[in-house]
Amino acid sequence: MITAGLTSSFKYQLLLGVHDFSVDTIKIALYTSSASLDANTTVYTTTGETSGTGYTAGGVTATNVTVTLSNGVAFVDFDDPTWAGATFTTQGALIYNASKANKSIGVMNFGLIQSMTNQGFQILMPAASSDSALIRIQ
Question: What would the pLDDT profile of 54-68 be if each residue is shown by its tens digit?
Answer without folding.
Answer: 999 999 999 999 999
